[in-house]
Amino acid sequence: MSDQWPDPPIVDGDLDTPAACGLPVFSSPISASTKEYVFVQEWMCSRKAFAFTPLDTPHPSASQLPDYSAYVLVEEGPRGDMGGGMVKWNRTYAIVPDSHDEYESYSYHFIGFETFSGIFVGRSRLSRIVVSRVAHDYFFAPGGNPSSVEILSETRYVADQPGEDPSSASDIDFLSNFGYAAAPHGTTPNLTTYQAWMATGVELIAESSHLSRWKGNIYQRQTRYVLAQ
């Protein structure tokens, strides 16, 4: 079969089933990739026969050549008057994009160090402008509920609280290998662990993930990382 769907038969006001009336027009909407994640296609039918198509509906080309049924409906455009009771509109279809990274400058508040019990020897917390990596991950949420998408929490520096829920621990300004006034039972991470992160290039989560709708019921999760220093 050819790449061209045939033009629908037009009898004024009598096309009762929506039909494609043009080839898919593909685009690459993500700057980091030239992959064709989205296409737009014109459809038509009689106005009296029009009914909205639910999001997530696969393109109706399964088992055809070409088969675009992996693409799902993410938008249905406004209906334009063609005369004779006919309307034409665009349907937009998309697939879930691959993960990709973007890089940009970011001011991060790095943790301080406490290196001698009772006497401060180390560094105070400090802000530095560094290059951050923003990870973009994509998830298909049928029906529009992305509650199963994991939100990655920012890296925290906390005082150890033996016997208590770590999530309720207090944030601190200094890491140490021993207890001090603000963290009598030590810190998580401790200073040795953090220094190992610095030496091996471990990334810190600078901000908790941000989840947003990308297209239709495809969601985008953005998580920002910086190198420990």
Describe this entry's structure for a reader.
The chain has 229 residues and is mainly β. The protein has two domains: 76 residues, no CATH class; 128 residues, no CATH class. The chain is 4% helix and 40% strand. It contains one helix and 15 strands, in the order βββββββββββββαββ. The strands form four sheets. Strands 1, 2, 3, 4, 5 and 6 form a six-stranded antiparallel sheet that branches. Strands 7-10-15-14 form a four-stranded antiparallel sheet, with no helix packed on it. It has a three-stranded mixed sheet with strand order 9-8-12, with no helix packed on it. β5 and β6 form a beta hairpin. The longest helix has 10 residues. It is elongated and about 85 Å long. About 3% of the residues have low confidence.
Overall mean pLDDT score?
91
What oligomeric state best describes the polypeptide chains here? single chain
Element string (H = helix, E = strand): EEEEEEEEEEEEEHEE
Helix-and-strand structural type: mainly beta
Percent of sequence in beta strands: 35-45%
Shape: elongated
Number of domains: 2
C-alpha Rg (nearest Å): 27 Å
Q: What percentage of residues falls in helices of 4 or more residues?
A: under 10%
